[in-house]
Write a structure and sequence with these properties.
The complex is a heterodimer of chains A (404) and B (182).
Chain A (H helix, E strand, L loop, with lengths): L1 H8 L2 H34 L15 H11 L10 H17 L9 E2 L8 E2 L8 H11 L1 H10 L3 H32 L4 H7 L3 E2 L3 E2 L2 H4 L1 H14 L11 H4 L9 H26 L15 H26 L7 H28 L6 H20 L26
Antiparallel strand pairs in A: 1-2, 3-4
Chain B lengths: L16 H4 L2 H15 L24 E3 L14 H5 L5 E7 L7 E9 L8 H5 L5 E3 L14 E2 L1 H11 L22
Classes of the chains: A mainly alpha (404), B alpha+beta (182).
Chain lengths: 404, 182
């Protein structure tokens, strides 16, 4: 048994198991500190200090929160659908963590004496990208089940909203990913990353963001919506729905939703980093590093890129107000969907002329935006804001003594 | 009479095509919040650092002033308890043992939990006997403990007279012990 394990350690399977044992605690710690960081960022953006009492700089705050959640009384509303009520937070957290399996964290590692390099990736699936999409789409189950099983109308509304929102934003998300899939001709995430490690003119990395900036913006918007983050956090909109789908949850079950949301954020960020920002690619280094230190450096760079994304998520959350639900739907169906369809079409045309991943990509993307701008301003298509078929607002308030 | 043409009509600002894509406005908003990230924090870290309070204006715990002869300055006129919107001042008047006034408070109690710290009592007092201090961090284990009686209120005066000395108004002309009035 021990012999077998030792042997396995030098194979991809053993390495994957070890990696899994490293990645899950690392991501969970990252999730814990994301909650801390979220509170810090919100404080900084509001000229406050944020948590700074538990431990140095408040760094023990996640631990204190965790202990609090575990020790709290765990109760269930009367009339709740018990199995589903318990299942929902598990699904929310578990499904979010499934995505970690296919993220290429640090390229490949070539130990001395091994013929084949080990992939620093838990599972190198041929359809890694599709798997990630599928798992991401499953994430809505936790929210919907929570809303349904709570026996609370606010939670139910929250679940409904989440379902409608996620189903809608899946489409532009898939289309913007399709752009990258078509342009790179790959479905394996590690191959897509590897493709981006080449350099232009010797210094500019061939990251997809430089070729497909508009696709990136669409994907980023959709990931915000998929992770239920502001300004798309309609499912847990306090002003309208108390707590939304997690109104009736407390203690560790509530914390599971919270952790699930942040895990989802980390997976979504890693996904975007892989597709658009060269994954583990270190800017300045042309080739992949397969030595131990090289892999560690690439892991660190991957972590840094994900952290920057997480910061941007938080930055946006504490800046932008929440959408109204009809605006949210309109933005998706009238705004993002046509543009992302047009972008996919442009990539297909580029493939036809056999010029994918060239400056034509950038020209195509900019062209689509220009056409969209012209269409929006010429034909007055209100993607957001007041719709054309509604009567003009008369905001005049009759003053006392006046006649209107 | 306001004429119809005087009424200014204010509607929602109309955005042009580019504006309706919101990118500029979103970028501007993000820029503003990013600027705040590096600004000086406004929080006062309370137990370690304290904000300077304006002694003459701050409305904290009450005190009952002593006159220059160390007697309670209150003359039991009931002006404060009448002015009090929270009805938290309870006074029992008795005949004054001193010749320079008719009444003095036998009992003077303020329920500090009921008080809303509006300062009306201080405004109403004709002899400046009741004043609000800068003390605000008072605690107690029971509600009864938080009803401050006359001795407690005089004690507050003894503790805060260095920070906020009594103004010693001349309206009452205290002269019992023959000490010269300040």
């Amino acid at each position: 048994m021990v012999d077998w394990l030792v042997i396995q350690f030098h194979t991809q399977l053993g390495f994957s198991i070890v990696l899994l044992l490293v990645v899950i605690p690392a991501v969970l710690t990252g999730v814990g500190y994301s909650t801390y960081f979220e509170r810090k960022v919100s404080a900084w953006l509001q000229d406050r200090h944020g948590p700074n009492r538990a431990g140095p700089l408040g760094l023990l705050q996640p631990v204190a929160d965790g202990v609090k959640f575990l020790l709290k009384e765990d109760f269930m509303p009367a009339g709740a659908d018990r199995p589903l009520y318990i299942l929902a937070p598990m699904l929310s957290m578990g499904i979010a963590m499934l995505g970690l399996a296919v993220i290429p964290w640090g390229g490949s590692y070539q130990p001395a004496g091994l013929a084949e390099p080990l992939q620093v990736q838990v599972a190198g699936l041929d359809i890694g990208l599709l798997y990630l999409l599928a798992v991401g789409a499953l994430g809505v189950y936790g929210v919907v089940l929570a809303g349904w099983s709570s026996n609370n109308k606010y939670a139910f509304y929250g679940g409904l909203r989440a379902a409608a929102q996620m189903v809608s934003y899946e489409i532009p998300l898939g289309l913007s990913i399709l752009v990258i899939v078509l342009a790179s001709g790959q479905l394996r995430l590690e191959n897509i990353v590897e493709q981006q490690t080449a350099l232009w003119w010797g210094f500019l990395p061939q990251w997809n963001i430089f070729l497909h900036p508009v696709s990136f913006i669409i994907m980023f918007t959709c990931v915000l919506a998929e992770t239920n983050r502001a300004p798309f956090d309609l499912a847990e909109c306090e002003q309208e729905l108390v707590g939304g789908f997690h109104t009736e949850y407390n203690a560790m079950k509530w914390a599971m939703f919270f952790l699930g949301e942040y895990t989802h954020m980390i997976v979504g960020s890693a996904f975007m980093v892989c597709l658009f920002f060269g994954g583990w690619h270190v800017p300045g280094l042309a080739a992949e590093q397969t030595t131990l230190w090289g892999v560690l450096l690439q892991l660190a760079v991957m972590g840094a890129k994900i952290s920057i994304f997480i910061f941007v998520f938080m930055w946006i959350r504490w800046t932008l107000p929440r959408f109204r639900f009809d605006q949210l739907m309109r933005l998706c169906w009238k705004g993002l969907l046509p543009v992302s369809l047009a972008l996919a079409l442009v990539v297909v045309v580029e493939l036809f002329f056999n010029v994918p991943r060239s400056y034509w990509s950038l020209i195509g993307e900019v062209g689509v935006v220009a056409v969209a701008l012209v269409a929006v301003s010429l034909f007055r298509i209100p993607v957001t804001g007041r719709q054309w078929y509604l009567p003009d607002l008369d905001n005049r308030t009759p003053l006392r003594g006046g006649s209107v | 009479m306001i004429k119809p043409e005087d009424i200014i009509r204010i509607g929602p600002p109309q955005l042009d095509g580019v504006g309706r894509m919101y990118f500029g406005e979103i970028a501007r908003g993000l820029g503003i919040t990013l600027g705040h990230l590096f600004k000086k924090k406004k929080t006062v870290q309370y137990p370690e650092e304290e904000r300077p309070l304006r002694v003459q204006n701050y409305r904290g715990v009450h005190r009952l002033n002593r006159d220059p002869d160390e007697r309670v300055a209150c003359v039991s006129c009931f002006m404060c308890s009448t002015a009090c919107p929270a009805h938290c001042i309870h006074i029992e008047a008795g005949e004054s043992p001193w010749p320079d006034r008719e009444k003095y408070p036998v009992k003077f109690e303020i329920d500090e939990l009921r008080c809303i710290y509006c300062g009306m009592c201080e405004e109403a007092c004709p002899v400046d006997a009741i004043e609000l201090t800068t003390e605000f961090d008072i605690v107690g284990l029971t509600r009864e403990e938080m009803v401050f009686d006359k001795e407690k209120l005089l004690e507050v005066y003894d503790q805060t007279k260095q920070v906020k000395p009594r103004k010693n108004p001349k309206i009452t002309g205290y002269s019992y012990t023959g000490k010269p009035q300040q």
